[in-house]
Design a protein that fits this description.
The protein has about 220 residues and is an all-alpha fold. The protein has eight helices and no strands. The chain has one domain: Orthogonal Bundle (MetI-like fold), CATH 1.10.3720.
């Protein structure tokens, strides 16, 4: 196989990996904040259900979660879903998993805020929602960015787990080509692709960190 054909095929897989990456972030970041509200709720039922969800998501392998999301509807309810559901199952599995991790990162950031911030906002006449979204959340985002960056970089590498339900992202294609050609070159090229992808993500997150560090 020529280099141009190899790069073309792996580039197609890379696009799938990027899709998984972007869609996971778009949905898991806001969902993580919602889960945080549940985790910090004064309602014991909501709080305990949320804690159980986070415990399951963080305590079981993402690979297993993807299999449950994809095969679960058939084995639990006898529902046969189309092949196109594979990609949707990957997104659902990734979003549910990463939302749990982001939720705990958000919670750590929120709980690190001094109570004086809330009291000062109350004196100034801010409502609870105004206090959170205008005063607390912007500061929380600054504090949690390093931890979020670590999870985002991990997500880049985790996209390769989509192979478990036969979604042809970059690593899956590299493995198929390597098997057919009896060569490790596709793996090396895939490794370079992942490194470049991670480098761009890390550089972008570092740029964002510098942008929000406006008091330094």
């Amino acid at each position: 196989m020529s280099w141009s054909v190899l790069l073309t095929k792996l580039s197609e897989g890379m696009l799938v990996s990027v899709e998984i990456f972007v869609l996971t972030l778009v949905f898991s970041l806001p969902l993580g904040l919602i889960v945080t509200f549940g985790r910090m709720s004064k309602n014991a039922l909501i709080r305990n259900i949320t804690k159980l969800y986070i415990s399951i998501m963080r305590g079981t392998p993402l690979m297993l979660q993807l299999m449950v999301v994809y095969f679960g509807p058939y084995y639990l309810f006898g529902i046969t879903l189309p092949r196109s559901y594979r990609f949707l199952a990957v997104i659902i599995g990734f979003v549910l998993n990463y939302a749990a991790y982001f939720a705990e990162i958000y919670r750590g950031g929120i709980e690190s805020m001094p109570l004086g911030q809330y009291e000062a906002a109350k004196v100034l006449g801010y409502s609870k929602s105004q206090t959170f979204f205008k005063i607390i959340l912007p500061q929380v985002i600054k504090r949690i960015l390093p931890a979020v960056t670590n999870e985002v970089i991990t997500l880049v590498k985790d996209t390769s787990l989509a192979f478990v339900i036969s979604v042809s992202e970059m690593f899956t294609l590299a493995k198929a080509i390597a098997s057919a050609q009896r060569s490790t070159i596709p793996f090396m090229v895939a490794g370079v692709f992942y490194y470049v992808f991670n480098f761009v993500v890390a550089y972008t997150m570092e740029w964002i960190e510098k942008k929000v560090s406006y008091y330094r």
